[in-house]
Structure formats: C-alpha cells, structure tokens
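sry for the spam today, last one i promise. struct tokens for design, 361 residues
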C-alpha cells in the first residue's frame, strides 16, 4: 500500500491551464474520487500520476519519494483506461499476463499470478476465452485484473464504467468497491458522475476548470459544500438569490424570510442553497403550485412553481398528499447562504421528510 501526494501540480495545453496548482493527499488504502464536469482536469491529473502526461510544474510523490523521473512502466501504479484496451487476438489469460511477460517473470509465477487475479475478480473459468466472448462487465473485470496482477501500490481508474449500461454500472460500482476493500489498495478513481462518486468514494476531490474546489467525505460534501459550485454540482439543489436586511437580521429569499444571527448578517445580495429534502409542507409557509409529482418508489420528487422563487424541487415521503395542479404551502427548514467566501447555515437542524440520497438503498 502507499500514500500519494500531489504538490502544486500544473499542466498547460497552450494558453489553457488544464490543471492549476493542484495539491492533494491520498491516504494509504483510500479510494479517492476525482469528480467534476468534462474538461475540469481530472483525467489529465490521473494521467500525470500514471506517468502518461508530464506536469509543467509541481511534484508527484509516493510514500515521500518523487516519481516524476520514472516512466509509466517503472512507477508503482497501474491504470485501467476508459475503453479497457484489451488485445482482441489474445485470450483473457494472455491479456492479463502480458505485463508480467514484459517484466520477464518466470512462467510458473506468471501462471500463478494470473490464476489469482482471475479468482480475485470473480472470473476463475474465463482464462481461455477471448474478449469478444465476454460481456461488458466481464471485460471491465479483466481490465482490473490486468492492472492488479502487476501488484501496484496505487490503482488508477479512468471512468471505467462509462461504457456500461445503467444497471450494470451500479453493479460494477459495488464490485470494485468490495474488491478495493478486500485488496486494500490505494485507488484514485476519475468520474463525472456525482452519484457514482458519492456511492464509491471514501473521499471526493471536486474540480472545476483545473482548480480543486473541495476535498471531503461524501457526507460532508453533500451537507456542507464550501462553494456555490460544489453546492450546485453535488446532489440536487435549489439555488436562489436573496437580499440581506441588516435592520431586521433577515434574508429575503423569494417569498420567505429567514432569520440570521446578528453577528453573521451578510451584506447585499447573496446566493441561498436549499436541498429538496429541506423544503417541507407547512401551513404557514409560502404558496406554491405543484407542477409535477414523480414517484421514485420510496419517495416522491415534486416539481413546484413559486411566483417569486421560480421552479423548485422538493423531496417528500411516498404517502404525501400531493398531486399535479394543486396549491400548497412550503417552508425552508434549512439553507446554506453563500456570501463571497463565507458560508452560513440557517434554519434546522431538522429531520428530512425522506432519507437523503446518501442514505437511500
């Protein structure tokens, strides 16, 4: 196992900085997700760790030893690419053994390690098959086995589930997470899928335009985002404009008035973020019209129209008496207020009417 440290990494392509002054520590045995929209620099960061792209500045250290001067084949890392890159003319055993043969290991050791790797990924009888005879999920497992057979200290995964259908993606997330825990290998996982990151990661590093925004556990990112971008990107969020009134120590958020501590009243216009589970039906709340009710099995996602606040999304229990076209009233139970670099939590704490996305099965 190993600890990975990225120190002030910068990578430019022409005038554009794909990664800018990125510093990140990945703990021994941790599964870290690099999460962000397309073009945010997450895959470039992964390729720099693996040695496939050279940084313009900064350092990459594994257990306090710089690996910048080492080519990919000499780094204690192994990478699973988005398209797997299995050799179609080789059997599964041949694909997995390829890297070991390049290292000129004894034949007996190669055969033993290939058998162990196939058993580890749940494919003990697939060695004689060819890639075209495997399902997408099985090909993904072979790609992971080909990486693990090299016994790397750090496993790098570049959106490995993007080519799988939705149901298989969910299954493979659990497979990879269980495998990572079983092996205990330090892992860096790149994805643009927030649900995937929230499901699989020990911690998540959120990136935007090559800049690291926040590094935290899934629970902390969801409940306590530190920037407007993270608040809007992680989970579903109602983003509202608000105006502070210092004389009354309140925030005017559309039709709502939220009290704030006297010593924390923000100045001027601010952004207020409200999770759908923190909008609750309340006879003393603001009037809204139900535009749509989406039954998601164990809870309802409700789209609301507010004359002053626009379109809102609310989560409600599956037995809530809500129907399209009806009028109701809702209140804000908890909100996050973003004013410059300051984040203020108002309202709550309260129990959400339904489980949060992190608690759903």
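last one done:
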């Amino acid at each position: 196992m190993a600890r990975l440290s990225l120190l002030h990494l910068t990578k430019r392509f022409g005038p554009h900085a794909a990664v800018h002054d990125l510093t990140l520590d990945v703990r021994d045995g941790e599964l870290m997700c690099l999460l962000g929209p397309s073009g945010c620099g997450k895959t470039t960061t992964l390729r720099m760790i693996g040695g496939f792209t050279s940084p313009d500045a900064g350092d990459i250290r594994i257990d306090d030893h710089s690996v910048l001067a080492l080519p990919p084949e000499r780094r204690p890392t192994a990478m699973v690419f988005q398209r797997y890159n299995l050799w179609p003319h080789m059997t599964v055993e041949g694909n997995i053994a390829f890297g070991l043969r390049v290292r000129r290991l004894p034949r007996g050791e190669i055969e033993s390690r290939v058998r162990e790797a196939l058993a580890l990924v749940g494919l003990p009888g697939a060695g004689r098959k060819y890639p075209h005879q495997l399902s997408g999920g099985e090909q993904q497992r072979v790609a992971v086995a080909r990486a693990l057979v090299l016994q790397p200290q750090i496993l790098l995964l570049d959106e490995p589930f993007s080519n799988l259908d939705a149901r298989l993606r969910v299954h493979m997330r659990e497979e990879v997470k269980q495998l990572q825990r079983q092996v205990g290998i330090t892992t860096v996982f790149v994805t643009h899928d927030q649900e995937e990151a929230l499901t699989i990661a020990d911690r998540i590093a959120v990136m935007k335009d090559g800049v690291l925004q926040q590094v935290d556990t899934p629970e902390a990112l969801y409940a306590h985002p530190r920037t407007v971008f993270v608040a809007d990107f992680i989970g579903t969020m109602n983003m509202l404009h608000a105006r502070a009134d210092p004389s009354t120590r309140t925030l005017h958020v559309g039709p709502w008035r939220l009290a704030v501590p006297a010593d924390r009243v923000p100045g001027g216009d601010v952004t207020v973020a409200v999770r759908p589970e923190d909008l609750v039906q309340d006879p003393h709340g603001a009037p809204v019209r139900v535009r749509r009710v989406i039954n998601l099995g164990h809870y309802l996602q409700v789209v609301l129209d507010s004359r002053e606040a626009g379109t809102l999304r609310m989560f409600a229990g599956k037995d809530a008496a809500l129907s399209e076209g009806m009028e109701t009233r809702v209140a804000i139970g908890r909100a996050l207020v973003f004013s410059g670099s300051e984040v203020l939590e108002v309202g709550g704490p309260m129990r959400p009417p339904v489980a949060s996305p992190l608690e759903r099965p």
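The chain has two domains: 4-228, 236-347. ok im logging off now
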